[in-house]
């Protein structure tokens, strides 16, 4: 058996800029691909592309053509940029206007100040790679102050321009800081007096001042250093802004003294294995998983805790694992205990209250600083593993490149799958693309995925029924080149079967008392006791996950509540979210849930919401859903994942490990292990009608005696291929490969002790050979 390899070289390889998504859609240079250099023809290719994703790919050729234009296409591009009927062509034209030999300031600068969210975002992004445009500096500074995703784009452009015209950028920023603090001060007077009278300032104004000061810290030179020194003086600025100035000074004066701590081993230091850093910046992660299911702390938090522990076990050649997550403003800026072997947790200090993943882009500088300091404090880091196209991966990739640390990236078609489905369903059209992209940043996230992939030393891909086809069609990437075969590996995610086994054992007849399991069952029984008497003989349909639109909890509730046959067949238990102090995303989803079933009627109608629960509690509840609870719920319950997408689906796997029949999305990872009509039902989770029908079918399947035997057979396969240990074995090999590739690239010797333990790329491994699905082979093998 061989490891399954897959190439990820796209039609546009990264050029001379960062291997992170700093480049606009058209700055990459294709390898071996012929394309037109005529702007009119390239623009028509964007307009005529059969899908939105193909249109985004064509934008890249358009901006390359614009860079060679002699100015005759200016009117054509201006007209296209302002055409509201086609957002895809419009964004292409905006980026082309910035790519012209002389960027079109006349069109782009007004977009920054008075345009829509869509045009402002793309103008700010496109200008990053243009020569500095003096007239654009003030509106870019204003966008930084305004916050949000656009502030991150504007800040990146100002950071790039500050390397060329530092005085111009610094002057605009200092003026903006003074205005921000003066305009929203509680009293008049000097800056110092205003800081003392700051009782009336809103958090938004504090945030604007803090972001502006943070951006001052990105300007090189002694003049900016002097400004920062003045800003940290007592009573000059509010505490968050002063802290931003102090941390920026630390980057200039203290951090360089720590040394680069590059990939090369430190002379004289004994090494017993690899050091791996893994990252998820949208959760509070600790070894006990106390916040599982709250906010954005979903399945990935559970995975990182269990995987980090598993990597250190046995003879996998891993010495240290550092799990980086979100911290608060009081978090220690530099961890001090990372030198010892073991699994360390290193939160990154972020100012302000916690925000959801979609709103965290403004923290790019703080995340980059925090990750850089973790890497420096750890020293000799062999690989940083990034898993999604978010601000954490963007900033961590910048820090890793700066310090010469190898990067492993998990490549998945997100947001590509959902985008393609919405377009196919008619929900997303070119006419609506500008409106949607202004909120969801689809074009930027698409580009970020592809540039993170291009810049990675090793790639990890999830098994999919049609991996080659999906990657070509959704990502525009070719999976069949020698380069990618050498650095790409398909690895299934895994679960800790020990937790599942403990939960199942606690519910067996005659099992001895287990305090934790008994407590979990007590909590479940108290919840079930809220049901009216007439509904206590029904089985449960349980769903576990974050209260977020992509997890589909509201869709599931609506399907259950509006389908009489389903409502009469089971009660619905939703596990996840913070019900006491919900985040904005959670509050929105709860509003949708209670629109389907009024809050005061939830339990009487059979709907139970428990909020987030620790992982061990959830495992016990899954086992109880299968076996039932005496006098409270019937046996034969089912698990339902109503997610719009699941690249793999750890919660679904855990439910299958508990021998539950599952309902899961019919695309992505679940199709590689759910056997349709035997161990579960795959369905279109975007449709309430299809979802309701699938849950009814699953309940019927759960009652079948043949299902139990099929689940036993499936469970044996799950344990072999989808355990956390199998995943750790595979990734240890990937990390050794990343370390060896980076070492070889610098002319140094690869660490023999690591390769002796875990092998090199190409090593046979049960978790990475061509994936044989648990499901029947009706949808094709991984290609």
Question: What does this molecule look like?
Answer:
- It is a single chain.
- With 783 residues, this protein is α/β, with parallel strands linked by helices.
- It is built from 33 helices and 13 strands.
- A 7-stranded parallel β-sheet has the order 3-2-1-4-5-6-7, sandwiched between helices. A 6-stranded parallel β-sheet has the order 10-9-8-11-12-13, sandwiched between helices.
- The chain is globular and about 75 Å long.
- Residues 1-19, 27-33, 187-203 and 743-783 have low confidence and may be disordered.
Topology:
Blueprint (H helix, E strand, L loop, with lengths): L38 H10 L3 H16 L6 H8 L5 H13 L5 H10 L2 H10 L10 H10 L2 H14 L3 H18 L7 H6 L6 H14 L5 H10 L7 H15 L20 E6 L19 H13 L6 E10 L14 E8 L14 H15 L4 E4 L4 H13 L3 E5 L4 H9 L5 H11 L1 H14 L2 E4 L5 H9 L6 H6 E3 L6 H11 L7 H14 L11 E5 L8 H10 L1 H6 L1 E5 L8 H13 L5 H4 L1 E5 L3 H13 L10 E3 L9 H8 L3 E5 L14 E4 L4 H15 L2 H17 L2 H22 L6 H7 L25
Parallel strand pairs: 1-2, 1-4, 2-3, 4-5, 5-6, 6-7, 8-9, 8-11, 9-10, 11-12, 12-13
Helix pairs in contact: 1-2, 2-4, 3-4, 4-6, 4-18, 5-6, 6-8, 6-18, 7-8, 7-9, 7-11, 9-11, 11-13, 12-13, 14-32, 15-16, 22-28, 23-28, 24-26, 24-30
